[in-house]
Predict the 3D structure of the following.
Amino acid sequence: MNSIYKGSMTGLAQAFLLAVAASAYGNNAIAASATGNALEYASVSELSAQMERNELTSVALVKHLQTRIETLDKQGPAISAIMELNPEAIEIATALDKEREEGNVRGPLHGIPVLLKDNVDTADRMQTSAGSLAMVGQPAANDAFIVKQLRDAGAVILGKTNMSEWAYVRETGLPHGWSGRGGQGKNPHVLGAEICGSSSGSAAGVAAGFAPLAIGTETNGSITCPASANGVVGVKPTLGLFSRSGIIPITRLQDTAGAMTRTVRDAALMFNALQGIDAADSATSDAPVGVDYTAMLSTDALQGKRIGYATEYVGPGGPALRPGIEFLTAMATLEEQGATLVPLTVELPDIGDYFSVLMAGMKHELPEYLANRSGLSIQTLQELIDFNELNPGSEGYGQQLLKDINELDMSRERAAELFAVLNAGFQQAIDEQLTAHNLDAMVAEADGFAQFSVAVAGYPAITLPSGINGDDLPTSLFFYGTRWSEPKLLAMAYSYEQASLELQHPTFKQQ
């Protein structure tokens, strides 16, 4: 969770809200692609083209990335983005290379490595732990629905990424990117800088060139915030576009998986693979299927578009905005590409008992998830709390949020009832702006308010790089819109990306 509405609430709500070129280290791990990109920074399209020309194999790519991870993640700057590597990755890549040799190419992701956040189930030798030592034990019995989709598309599951433990739902004030199992993750641009959570390892791993693709998840801000902080593309879909089956929950009222990549096209390719109806997740029942999310990508997709942006937020904690130079530059680029920008005063709905609603979701849903995992030392929230008390770790971090959740007195039905009102309010706030001003989308920088609104509404959003500030840290642009508007948002983001070319690879700078 990234920080917004500061000072406007107390207790559990405020606590939860506050959650929200390889330099000298890795030059020996550089291999140039035919397009001039270092192999670790090549796009999926570039990698696939090399494989088609028999200039690269999936095995060679996996080995290269494994070496880079050892050099930069475990040694050197030691950014701790990777929780564990898949011991079967080479075997999987070998089989996929053989398929290619035999003329069977499953699609654009064939042989392409992908990283998974450590809350996504895999039925293999890797753990699925949400970063918690209490969850280490027998691996999951089944792949998450989205993992099966990735495997079917020919992707190589390279490993699991570090994350803010329990998606930053453990204790107020813990550093973002820390987990008991994975340690403290670092921002590869400036090692001591904010990494943001909870999909911190997925974002940092993609930024650092450990894989071209990663899965992140978010309840509120956990894809968009780390994507912004680490300078990568992060796409949160409409709730229900991707299945949540086999993902450790906070609450299905708002949880979603999403794509973390270095380019908009790569994110669109992931969307092509991850769409689909899951009978075990009712939210997917009316999702669009068979969509080609690359079809609308073009350099002139901004031509004639009307895009709104907030100059002021009215409501709890909503100050007038002072846009940074990178945002002003980005807006100028949008206009140069033919977009009309419309300034708006945005009214924020009252969030009421929002955070208690989310925490009630975790109280009821986490035990249900645990009941389907065997071979673990915990089966309940209380057992998790007891484990942490007996195993405090060297940092000695607390777990007050977990205790508050365990003691929360709110039924699942009451939580769903309260959330329905909040969800409708934030959807209306966005839809009314789009309709009243005849907008194709809205845009913001990383102000937190837009990200929060989109998350509660269950609407789609795309974060992508907009530059580097005076502290050598990435800045970002944030496109968002109404339900199922991903094709249009991806197209506009692609047009901006191609015009601005703001992606910058990290230098692993010591602060």
